[in-house]
Amino acid sequence: MEFVLKHQAFAHLREVALFPNTLNPHEAESLALVAAMVGQVLELHAGARWFHIGCDEVCHLGEGEASRQWLQQAQNSIATLCLSHMRAVASLTRARRPDMTPLVWDDMLRDIPEDQLSASGLPQLVEPVLWDYGADLDVRGKVLLVEKYQKCGFPRLWAASAFKGATGPHQTLPPVEHHVRNNMQWLQVAACGPADLLQGIVLTGWQRYDHFSVLCELLPVGIPSLAACLQSLLRGGFAEEARARVESLLGVPSLEMTGFASEGAGSFPGSDILALVTQVGLHLRGSVDEMLQKDRYVTGWFSPYHRRRKLIHPVMVQHIQPQVLSLLARWSALVRELEAALHRVFHEDAVDEWLEENVRPSLGRLQALLQDLGEAAGPQASLASPSSDTGQDP
Hints:
The protein is an alpha/beta fold. It has 15 helices and 7 strands. It has helices spanning 2-5, 28-44, 65-71, 78-96, 114-119, 139-152, 176-192, 219-235, 240-250, 271-294, 296-301, 304-309, 314-343, 348-358, 360-384; strands at 14-16, 19-23, 50-52, 101-105, 127-131, 157-164, 198-205. The radius of gyration is 28 Å and the shape is globular.
């Protein structure tokens, strides 16, 4: 809800005044706001069979003043409050489109007792989506959770994995093996659980962890992971045949499964962005660190101590400056190419944000080194040159 509740016009609908992530469920205007949002989405998706109403990680629920007063009544609890709001949102969604099924994330339901879930009426309104994005998913624990929801009366369930995102809010390259493994473990859950209860898997691709976080992996960069996960789900594994299929479809010479997507060129839309982002993600910061922290001339003759005092042996300028200029020119050319490629896909603000987060800090360190070098070399050069106002011949 952050993208709505961050605005002053809706701030009074926050559960806790300071935090824009959770809606106050006691306000009639809150439900009206959600109804308006649902209506706007439905106008754009007239043929939708399912509608995901969210409801995961409802942090600070029960901490608002109205909630605290409500919770003082003996029969009330945070679980009751959560179920009541879910039921209200699901009901208004079904009222608008009786032929459409609302989905909800399941984490707020996991610890609610079976009898309370059964009596809530929610199993007749929604289908839970069990999410877990880890590479070490607890298969047995998930099977038990599926069985619990079945006992509560939910006729159908879904699973949710990820092909990008979920492994770090500032991640630039998706660890393909992690995501494939996660999807394979969800297939194990489906195979071990009650037959035909799991309807399918929601393969998520995160763009941010929340509305206020930085961009994580860009979509073009995540396409090899998406292809690998889809082939794994279709074939029940990622053996050599599935790998070869992905490599053929994407036009890549190999798909590196032990870490990040390989740097090889591809023929799929966005492969140029993948190749350039891989270069930046794996090598830009490291090459700058190498220059600033391991180059013997920089660390020995132009350390932070020297830079603050603008001191340098003149001959060392000839050792350091060409290397810095060469490194900066090489990266600047690649970044210009990347920026042009990103502009073909993304809006200006997304391009600017990604470059500011992932590129400009490293280039800025090189530019600052050059500036300090120039300022330090200036006074030294003037001291070393003959004076023009002594009246004497050189």
